[in-house]
Amino acid sequence: MELLKIQNVKKVYTTKLGLVQCVALKNVSFTVLEGEFVAIMGASGSGKTTLLNIIASLDKPTSGDVSLNGRSFASVPDGELSKFRRDNLGFVFQDFNLLDTFTLKDNILLPLVLSQTPVKQMESRLAPVAQMLGIDALLGKYPYEVSGGEKQRAAVARAVITDPQLILADEPTGALDSKASVNLLQNFRALNQQAGKTILMVTHSSMAASYATRVLFIRDGEIFAQLYRGEDDNRAFFDRIVANLSVLSDGGADIG
Amino acid sequence: MGVRTLGKGFYCKLAWGNIRRSREVYLPYLIACAIIGGIYFLVCGFAMSKELQAVPGGESARALFQMGVMVFTVFAAGFLLSINRFLVKRRKREFGLYGVLGLSKAHVGRILLLENAIVLLGGLAFGLAFALVFGKLLFLLLLKLMHALPQNAFAPAPVAYLATAALFLGVYFISSLYNLAQVHLANPIQLMQCEKRGEKDSKLVVPMALLGAGMLGVAYYFAWTVENSGTAMGIFFILVLLVILATNLLFTSGSIAVLRTLRANRRFYYKPKNFVSVSGMFHRMRQNAASLATICILSTMFLVTLAGTLSLYLGQEKTLAMYYPYDAYASGYPIVLDPAAADAALSALAEQHGVVMHAEEDGLNYDVAEGAPNPNATVYPGSKLHLQAHSIELDGVLYFDLEGTEEACQAFLEQARELTMAVEDAEMGREVNYGYGISDIWSARQYNYATYGGLLFLGTFFAVLFLAVTVLMIYFKQITEGYEDKERFSILQQVGMDEAQVKAAINAQVLWVFFLPLATALLHMVFASRILTRMLQAFMLYDWVLVLCCAIGVCAAFALIYFIAYRMTARAYFKIVKR
User: Are A107 and A114 spatial neighbours (Cβ–Cβ below 8 Å)?
Assistant: First the structure.
């Protein structure tokens, strides 16, 4: 079933006086099916973060439309956007974005508290998520007391605890060492395969992308290729991604 | 790359650039330096002023200022040093970055020395300029408070310049040592990592909070129940210390204990509004409780100083009426007057000056059990009033009113002080001439206005100092918290809190953090007003209502200033958060 549908999205940034125009996204269209784990790859400045912000409803496209589960973002009134985001989307950021004022537990519960979930239900939802991500022993600690990998797993827990339709991840391994990265990606895979979560991840790491089921390549504001994993294992898929990058990047692109 | 290879200009440029870039912090610091320097210069100037000495009662006012200089030195130096400490502490990360960029510790130290010199010198220059411009005006104001007429314009003594320069030099020396120690004691990596984080919860929180509450309770109890003015004076400073300690404990531990309890109540805590603000407060209190406590204590000092000196000044006439039920009194010392002879001698002299000396019998302000005191009635056990021809005698002292022009009265009193009476001295075996001890309300009034006017002026200077530092601390807090909350603000929005909710939560928290010190200071003041009243009784001021009115007036004015400071600093805060 089609979960996310991006149709002819264009984003143009204009300077204040309207003199200089910067086209971040030219014309992007693609769909994400329910249960997919999609990675979007691109160099710095290719427009992938702009695309993610638009999908996250944090930014609005200049033209074109985004719809989630058949509901167009344009039809959601501004006042309800926060609630819409809270109910339907889960976010994982590169720099974790955990609040130092909360323990890991409270950080994870934050979206539930915001949607006024009863305390009992919060606790019962927390336990399996924390266990699955292996952070149940750390729940009482503050973000500054745990490692980067642990912080990111807490951030993932916060993203999935509302049981969102779509998990959006922006360079989730960007601030992690390779061991923590692998651990996190395995968690993503487990979320995708066992819990059936749909994940959309922006990355410029081929290793991270090789955990996805499909990879979209974006360059200069356009999708210019996509790869399906098919029956490949990680290693084979990784090789195909790297090969694709080196064929399609015009010489100096900084994709690694 | 050695220290020598970098030109002097490079350091100056770097130091000046640093100050300009963080002018939102340095400008208020500079203003505080200027205020402290200017006031210090004026206090020194008044303390050494020949012009002040020349006016009637000026000598006592000068003595007061000389005492004030000593206390002021301690406060001014303390404040300047602690502001410097605060500013340097939050820059540790920057020092670390310099290290990483290849500047050695010696380089960083030199930049810091220069920065410190620029700010202190700038503050000193502005303060002196301000003091020189407004010094004459303030001097006239002081004389007006003292009810004295100006004879010469105020010109600050050279020694005042020296004292102010010495204060700033001392502060520069000590703060520079501290700054250099900060840079030298840590390595770049440590410096880079010393981001702000709350300390771990300590098990001592609850006992400390209880201790604080207990100490505050004891201090309040004594302040409220003390009866005797002597005792009040004796225990006042102990109570002040107790309240300072208790305030610190309650802010640092008590707040944590309360918030912990709130957090433990899951039904309460896991509501959207409480969730964000309780945890925010918790975080904030762990970091900033000490500075909140300082703000609270400074505010209380402001209130007590101003209310006390203002009451004394405004209570003037009542105090005088207490001391002088009649315009003047005459006594013999060491001998006892012969009432009838003294009465006759004084009234005869008065007549020569065209002054009528008389006394109504009910003028004495002593507690009389029943009815008006009759001639020869017992006023209090063992003492009797004796009505004389032109005066009333009590315990060998003649009380009388004077009627005539003030000049005539003054002339009479001056003459009367030179009157002598011949008394047979048994020891020496001959007659000895003794003078009268004459005390009158006019000279007492002049002396009192000079003293209490000077005191009020000095008190106001101190109050301005406390206020400047309080506002500065509030401002610094808002700025640092602004940068912290900016991040929280955007994360909360990303996680799905809408802007109105975020704003409401942060607003509530800012209000709490801001008004907690004010509320506590006002509570302290309620109890302080009691002991203040008792202490003022040592100055014969028995007017509780007056003290209360002064306290309320000062509190209201302070709350207004505090609120204005809040509005102004909150604007700076929201500017940062929304940037």
Answer: no
